[in-house]
Every structure is written in C-alpha cells, then in structure tokens.
Amino acid sequence: MSPKSLQQGNLSSPTMFLLLGFSSTYRAQVTLCLCFSLIYLVTVLGNLLIVTLIWLDAHLHSPMYFFLGHLSFLDICYSSVTLPKILGDSLSPQKTISFVGCITQIYFFLCFGGSECILLAAMAYDRYLAICQPLHYPALMSKKMCHCLVAISWLSGSFSSLIQAFLTACLPFCGSNMVDHLFCEIPFLLKASCNPNALLNKAALYALAGTIAMGSFLLTLVSYVHIIRAVLQKGAGTQRAFATCTSHLTVVTLFFGTGAIAYLVPHSSGSKDIDEVLALLYAIVTPMLNPIIYSLRNSEVKGAIGKALHKVVLRMSTKVAGIMLSDPTLPTAGMQLSVTQHT
Predict the structure, then answer these.
(1) Of 156, 236, 292, 329, which residue is most buried, by most CB within 10 angstroms?
(2) How far apart are CA 147 and CA 335, in angstroms?
(3) What are the percentages of helix, strand and coil residues in the chain, rounded to 5?
(4) Which residue has the higher pLDDT, 40 or 89?
(5) Which residue has the higher pLDDT, 341 or 177?
(6) Residue 9: what pLDDT?
C-alpha cells in the first residue's frame, strides 16, 4: 500500500463512535437512567402543558404567548435530540453511536439551540415594544411580524447548524473513535480529532455561534436596557408591565449563562466531570426549568392552569354523577328507586 493511500486510510472517519462519558459502575448507570428519565418526563409534560394551554385558552392568544408556545416546542425538540439516546445508552453494555447518527445529532442540537437563541431575542423585542411603544404595539407586532420572527429563528438555526455539521463531518479522526462525553457535541469531537487545532472548524464554530448567540444576547440586552429605562421614567404602570418580563429574563439568564460558561471556559482547564455538568445544564436541565419558571412567575399562565384544572374536575364530577344516577346497583340510585316504588 502506498504512503498516500495509507495516509488517506488513517484520516478516514470512523463508522462508529464510542461514548466514554458514562460511569462504568452499574449502580451509577441505573441512577443516571432514573434521573434522566424523570428530567425528560418533566420536560416533555411541562412544555406540552404550556403549548396546550396557549392553544386552548383565548386569553393567551397574544404575541408574547405565541412566542412562548414556540419556545416550549423548541425545548421539547432540544431535549429529545440527546436525552432518549442517553437513556438508551445508560443501561446498554455498548455506549456507541454511528458516525451518521453523531453528525445528525450535532445538526439538530445546534439547530434547535440556535433557533432558541433568536427566539429569546424576539421575545425580548416583543416586550420592548409592549412597554416602550404601547400605542404602536398592535401594528408593529402584528400576526405577520410574529410569524416572520419565528421563521427567521428556525431558518437561521438550520443554516448555521448545517454548516457546522458539514465541517464536523470533514474532520480527520485518524482512526480514533472515542468521544469523552455523553453525546456528540462539537468541542468534544474536536478533542477526538487527530487535528484538535483545526482552525477552520474552530473559526466556524466561534463565528457562527458568536453571530447567533452573541447577536441574540446583545439584542436582548439592548431591549431590556430600554425597558428598564422606561420603567424608571414612567412609574407604576410600566412596573406592572415589567412583571411580565421576569420569567423571560430568568430563562434568558439560565440559557445564555450556562451556554457561555460551557463554550467560553477552556475545556482543558477543568476536569471531565465539570465539562459534562456544564453541558448537561444548558442541554438538558434548562429546557426542563423553562415551563416551571413560566408557570410559577406568570399570573396569566397560573390562571390558565387553574381554569383548565377546574374544567377537568367539573367534567369528572359530572361524569361520576351521571354514572351514579344511571346505575341502579349504586346506593344512591337504589335509594331513589325504592322511594319511587314506595310512592
């Protein structure tokens, strides 16, 4: 075999990656599976509850809750990219993922994450218009504008993730197929590559991530600077309006804060456990916390939950009463029947 063909063979991408982020002890794997199962269940049910409430409750048919519904849908998709595979691998003897599956996971992970960054910025812009431009708000934040902002978030996330996934697929791995993480993520694949200082991939990573994440964060920051200024100048009326921003501001802090720490802190400076915890915070924990934050800190969402529960209880009690009246074997129906016969 010629040196040239040997070099090409060594640089070829592996067909399978071995994920080394899992513990080797069975008890730790079971604990990991149970914890992630609970997190995924809370994430899906919580965000699905928000989407259902916004769809059914007419009081929540406003631009702010239109964006919140899309955010909850994104959180379900975002966590579904990684958690089901982690759950399957936690009890599997072989923690592997195919090369195509790994690149696909990277694409959707970055797609949903980038889309969420831009959607959070759109939500901040919506609050800015509602508080600082209340008279022009219905015209500026029309239904068409809402759909355009959501489309921009999806298209931007898809385009940037497509470039990143393509560049990652072109990385030389020199036969190495070990990824020291729970799922496929670009910083860990760069470490697994035989060329960890791949300038093109690193430049593309920080350029695209910086354009989307930092651009979205700066737009959110500018929006809230104007909102806080308006609240301080106009007084009580805008202070009540600012209460609608607290949930969004908390979610923004969690999402951008954990993501910035995970990507901007050099991985070589910390331990492997710290790297994994940081990755799990923004990839898994934050989507679970978003519906909890909006449910606890938003009076309209709490009101919608209360009305929905009241309707469910009323419907169940009506069904139970109907069954009791129609079934002669039940005590109440039997008593009514005997009284009728006696008269």
Answers:
(1) 156
(2) 60
(3) 80, 5, 15
(4) 40
(5) 177
(6) 38
Measuring CA to CA, which residue among 188, 183, 176 is closest to residue 90? Answer: 183
Question: Where residue 54 falls among pLDDT bands split at 50, 70, 90?
Answer: confident
Average pLDDT over residues 61-87: 91
How many CB atoms are located within 10 Å of the residue 301 CB? 23
* Residue 144 to residue 71: CA distance in whole angstroms: 18
| Residue 329: pLDDT band with limits 50, 70, 90 | low
DSSP for residue 175: T
d(CA 167, CA 169): 5
Q: For residue 245, what is the DSSP state?
A: G
The 10 Å Cβ neighbour count of residue 20 is 15
Rounded (5°) CA angle 125-128-134? 125
Looking up tokens 């993501």 gives 259
Structure tokens at 209: 């991530």
Return all residues near 191 (Cβ < 8 A) that are at least 6 apart.
180, 267
Question: Are the C-beta atoms of residues 121 and 220 closer than 8 Å to each other?
Answer: yes
Closest CA to 298 of 231, 238, 223, 248: 248
Closest CA to 183 of 108, 106, 289: 106
Q: What angle in degrees, to the nearest 10, is found between the helix axes of 246-264 and 99-132?
A: 140
Residue-wise pLDDT for 256-311, tens only, equals: 887 777 666 655 544 566 667 777 777 888 888 888 887 766 666 766 667 766 67
Sort 338 into a burial class: Cβ within 10 Å, 0-12 / 13-18 / 19+. exposed
Instruction: State the Cα torsion 126-128-134-138 to the nearest 10°.
Output: -20
